[in-house]
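step: validate -> pass
step: tokenize input -> pass
step: predict -> running
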Amino acid sequence: MMQLYDYVLSGSCYKVRLFLSMIGKDFETIPVDYYPGGEHKTPEFLEINPLGQIPVLRDGDLTLRDAQAILVYLAGRYDTGRTWYPEDAETQGQIAMWLSFAGGEIMNSSAARLHDMLFYDFDIDKVRAAARAAFRVLDDHLTEREIDGADWIVGDAPTIADIACFPYVALSGDGGIPLDDYNAIRRWIARFKTIPGFTIMPGIHAN
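step: predict -> pass
step: emit ->
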């Protein structure tokens, strides 16, 4: 069975759990004591992922790190309807752009969360400001999409772009970043929670 090296409080791991639930794919969870145990930095785990990061997915002989890469793989292999990662080059390019955004700019929200919850030594004002700037980009994009009659980041249905961006936006309050000023994002979050297979994690509720 597919195995996911997982930490329940990680938004990046949550992306993978979310998508596996939404495509109805069974998997085994292998808990990683990220905090306070620091298991992701042990020699044993570094043999699995030399970057010392989670999540890691094992599917047969394949081992993949990075949540965004894992989403691309799962969509390509297990989404028979090709709705989550459509095959046309234009849509794939747009999705790739937002996957990069999710793994880059939006991660400032993760840094703020790590600072507030796990006492990481980040410049909290800097990462919060960067997260707000990223949210403004996303909110403006979603507003334009709504004007055009579209509900999702790319295309006419949810894609892995939505999956990738969702967790650390929805968890922003854990890092002291309220979403009051981002109306389109809040509407998008509400829509996202209606996707069949949606699951919760600590800090993200069903309603």
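step: describe -> The longest strand covers residues 3-6.
step: cleanup -> pass
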